[in-house]
């Protein structure tokens, strides 16, 4: 499992296209959303995503949309979270 504790410049560019199956995001905030979105869409083997982020990020949801994730766990959100589309 790849654990990311802090979003930093260049991180998502380095990870882009890697064969990552399990990902845990533990960050107070996502700072490099565009790079993160591009990398998430390149993780074609991604099966499990665990997210612990202090605030909700619309860009994060855009990045997860369309991925073939088998298991998704969300925690740590300080604001209300609404599920608009559940499949």
TrEMBL record:
It comes from the Eukaryota. This is Uncharacterized protein.
């Amino acid at each position: 499992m790849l654990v990311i504790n802090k979003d930093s410049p260049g991180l998502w560019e380095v990870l882009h296209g890697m064969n990552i199956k399990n990902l845990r995001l533990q960050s107070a905030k996502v700072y490099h959303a565009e790079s993160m979105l591009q990398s998430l869409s390149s993780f074609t083997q991604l099966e499990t995503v665990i997210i612990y982020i202090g605030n909700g990020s619309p860009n994060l949801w855009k990045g997860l949309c369309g991925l073939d994730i088998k298991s998704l766990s969300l925690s740590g959100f300080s604001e209300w979270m609404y599920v608009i589309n559940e499949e």
